[in-house]
Design brief:
Layout (H helix, E strand, L loop, with lengths): L3 E2 L17 E5 L10 E4 L5 E2 L6 E5 L7 E9 L1 E2 L5 E10 L5 E9 L1 H4 L3 H4 L7 E3 L17 E3 L6 E2 L13 E10 L4 E3 L1 E8 L2 E7 L1 E5 L10
Parallel strand pairs: 1-5, 3-16, 5-17
Antiparallel strand pairs: 2-8, 4-7, 6-10, 6-13, 8-12, 8-15, 9-11, 9-13, 14-17, 15-16
Length: 221
């Protein structure tokens, strides 16, 4: 589903339609050859971000260009017991962004152990205008807290996937910070390369990130 956000408006969700692929971007770390690596969609392999497939999140521009939007709610967890370490994050783009910065956000159980008002800045999020960790842009719509890092390669994932998720359990969230011009940006899917017990895998997530613009359009824009 789509969640569309703009300053001062409520989220709206829409189903994602088909997208034509034109660009493949890569970041951070080393990768084994594609023929050596087993690929799987979210929900069918060892590593998951619990986003499912077929949906996405769209954010409207704040009226300043270039601009940034951040996307989260990719909660890293294991569907099977294994020694899992991240290698790198990749993505496809049909409308190319200016830049994409994958980050990890770690939130501890202690940070979530409080009143709803105290824990709200530490909760997982779908999307927000601006970028962590300072959210210093004048159009930023969030002040989300936690330990943000750009160091993806080598990170160990040990949390088990649970449904429903305990809202007071520690988590590691995969966050994308995307910058775009007036044309906007559209990333229909992303990939997480990782190893499990030393064997290479790729998690494929068909979940779109859209920065609405003159070229990047959707029903949520």
């Amino acid at each position: 589903m789509f969640e569309a956000r703009s300053s001062g408006s409520q989220p709206r969700r829409f189903l994602l339609g088909g997208l034509a692929l034109s660009l493949h971007v890569a970041l951070t770390g080393c990768q084994a050859g594609a023929s050596e690596r087993e690929s799987h969609p979210d929900g069918e392999g060892i590593l998951s971000v619990q986003l499912g497939s077929g949906g996405g999140v769209a954010v409207r521009p704040p009226g300043f260009f270039p601009w940034r939007a951040s996307y989260g709610f990719g909660l890293l967890c294991l569907r099977e017991d294994a020694d899992v370490r991240l290698e790198r994050v990749r993505w496809d783009a049909t409308v190319e962004p200016i830049s994409v910065t994958p980050m990890l956000r770690r939130v501890s159980a202690q940070q979530l152990d409080g009143s709803p008002r105290q824990t709200a800045p530490f909760s997982p999020f779908y999307s927000a205008l601006g970028s962590p960790p300072k959210w210093s842009e004048r159009y930023a719509t969030a002040d989300l807290r936690g330990d943000f890092t750009k160091e993806v390669a080598g990170t160990e994932v040990a949390a088990a996937c649970e449904r429903p998720r305990d809202p007071k359990a520690a988590f590691t969230e995969l966050v994308f910070v995307v910058e775009a011009a007036e044309e906007g940006a559209r990333m229909p899917r992303f990939y997480v390369d990782y190893t499990a017990d030393g064997s290479p895998y790729t998690l494929r997530v068909d979940h779109a990130f859209v920065l609405c613009g003159t070229r990047a359009r959707s029903r949520a824009c």
